[in-house]
Amino acid sequence: MPQELYIISLVFSCLALLVSIVTAWLTLFRKGKLVITQPAVVFFGPDGSRFDSKKNKVYLRALLYSTAKRGQVLESLHISLQRNESKQNFNIWVYGNKGDLKRGSGLYIPQEGVSYDHHFLLPEDGTNFAFLSGSYKLIVFAKLVGRSTFHEMASIHLAISDAQAAKLSEPNTGIYFDWGPDQQSYQSHIDMKLEKESDFEQFLEVMALKKMQPMQKTSS
Description:
Helix content is 26%, strand content 43%. It has helices spanning 3-29, 162-168, 197-219; strands spanning 34-36, 41-46, 56-66, 72-83, 86-90, 92-97, 100-103, 107-109, 114-121, 134-144, 151-160, 173-180, 185-192. Strands 1, 2, 3, 6, 7, 9, 12 and 13 form an 8-stranded antiparallel β-sheet that branches. Strands 4, 5, 8, 10 and 11 form a 5-stranded antiparallel β-sheet that branches. 18% of the residues are buried.
């Protein structure tokens, strides 16, 4: 074999080996990190589908994804909510989509990501946290399997006005913060639920029973 062909063959072999090493590192060995997108919506208010809980919660929806091909195993999520000198951790994590919520107890996050609703609740034996007027800083923390420390994933700044705080003191009332990509800021609005649907259903049942009573008396 001529010397030139031997050198060219050796160079291509080295390049192929280098490509194999880089590919193996990117797909098998590189850990990467867990990332969260800008939450599309954040909610402060009572827990429950009808806002009927006495305890407040924080809700947000965002995409979690891994920067590495091998993915990440998320052990837990929690948030810290700060208002001036007040600070409260919401450490009960529930995730999923409407009608299919699960208690957070570990979640695999692939490179392509997963998008869920994330609900953060207060402990049942803890005190409630009132949403008063002021500036808020919401920090999302994640803990990966095998890690001993929490990783700060996002820091979000929000505000509640005096008028909004007065509304939030009323029952069955919450506040939504919707992300505006054009303005790169959150727009807030108050949402108030009406009386429970179950009360209306009970009313219909009572009215139906009253209508049946005269029919029963006639037949007897």
